[in-house]
Amino acid sequence: MTISVSLGRSIRLALTAAVLGIAPLHAETIKVTIDNFTFAPAEVTVKVGDTVTWTNHDDIPHTVVSAGKYRSKTLDTDDSFSFTFVSRGDYKYFCSLHPHMTGMVKVE
Amino acid sequence: MSFDDHDERGLSRRRVLECMTWAGTGVLWTLSGGVPRSLGLIDAAQAAEQQASGLTFLQISDSHVGFDKPANPNAIGTLEEAVNRIKAMPKKPAFMIHTGDISHLSKAAEFDDADRIISQTRLDVHYVPGEHDFLDEDVKLYKERYGKGTRGAGWYSFDANGVHFIGLVNVVDLKAGGLGNLGAEQLAWLEQDLKGRSKSTPIVVFAHIPLWTVYPQWGWGTEDGGRALDVLKGFGSVTVLNGHIHQVMQKVEGNVTFHTARSTAFPQPAPGTAPSPGPMKVEDAKLRSLLGIASIDFKVGVERLAIIDTPLAG
């Protein structure tokens, strides 16, 4: 009885999360570093609700910009920016100061 | 022309011109009879003679005020050294151009410090922005301070002694995977600005990122720079002055001379010689030999250019 109730709740929660795009409880944080004007890893695959955190280790500021989706402030050395992905899709992004720096977040 | 060709030629010319090295910190330009030439500070007498009959101006670049990382913990100090050398010039230049990255992070205090130091030259300064000058949240500080009388993101033109100067902005609205960007609006303005102008008018174009493709792998070039050059092609004497890459590069193509100046803040590696274009840490004793700038000497009818190294020291 107890089990089925809590199971039912979990399912309802999961459904709510899926419908409203709310982060599920198991959401993870995936790290992307910026070293030598390069996003590493250049491509990450995450799940809906996961958060990606970019940290700049260069002596030069960078940004993380996905046109129309998200845009970090200027990240000076050791600054970080996080974004939580609530819907599926391919999110190409780049550094608006050094546009040859590009990356991709695939949200499944 | 490939970078290698360019570098090889540049090096050999530098060797030839070793005796002409001057301990300056900006490019000293002089215009005599409408023909731009550059002069070293060491040739003070010659400079004085030229200035009697022509126009002389300076170029500094990439001050990065606020930068305090290992490559140069005191970028303010080296800017002050540059300014002191300008102040010590025997004859005052007409004005100065600054080819961007005045500040490192577009903080008001950084712009304040830059202005306080650069104003000590007592020269009019014509600025164009670098990407480091547009980093404040509202992207307004550069425009407020330096954008008076400019269009768009800060482009403009002016005339001095029969020479037409054009300051361009190629650091905004950059596209993913691309290089520097001028944009359609600015290109249309440029075309309009040059319309009806005599083809014998010497043109000096200055912008932060090189208008020519230096090394696209590091973003060192301007996506639509070629379109600007198409508009400039018909003019008899075109000089393109840039910064951004913190080292001297030079190229001549037809009537167009391209030149990049050194930074007063920190050196960057030669294309492809390091994992990234980031600030290059060198021995303390060597730093001032890589800061400052270089000058160009060019004359109508003379194909070969002189590249003159102009370090802060050494």
From TrEMBL, chain A:
Q: Does Calcium show up as a keyword for this record?
A: no
Report whether Signal shows up as a keyword of the record.
Answer: yes
Which keywords accompany this UniProt record?
A: Signal
Q: InterPro entries this protein is in? A: Amicyanin, Cupredoxin, EfeO_Cupredoxin, ET_Amicyanin
**EfeO-type cupredoxin-like domain: which residues?**
26-105
Q: Where is the signal peptide?
A: 1-27
| PANTHER family assigned | BLL1555 PROTEIN
Q: What is this protein called?
A: Cupredoxin family copper-binding protein
- Which organism is this protein's natural source? Bradyrhizobium aeschynomenes
Q: What taxonomic classification does the UniProt entry list for its organism? A: Bacteria, Pseudomonadati, Pseudomonadota, Alphaproteobacteria, Hyphomicrobiales
From TrEMBL, chain B:
Q: Which residues form the Calcineurin-like phosphoesterase domain?
A: 56-247
One protein family per Pfam: Metallophos
- Output the InterPro entries linked to this UniProt entry: Calcineurin-like_PHP, Metallo-depent_PP-like, STPP_CPPED1, TAT_signal
Q: What is this protein called?
A: Metallophosphoesterase
Q: Which organism is it from?
A: Bradyrhizobium aeschynomenes
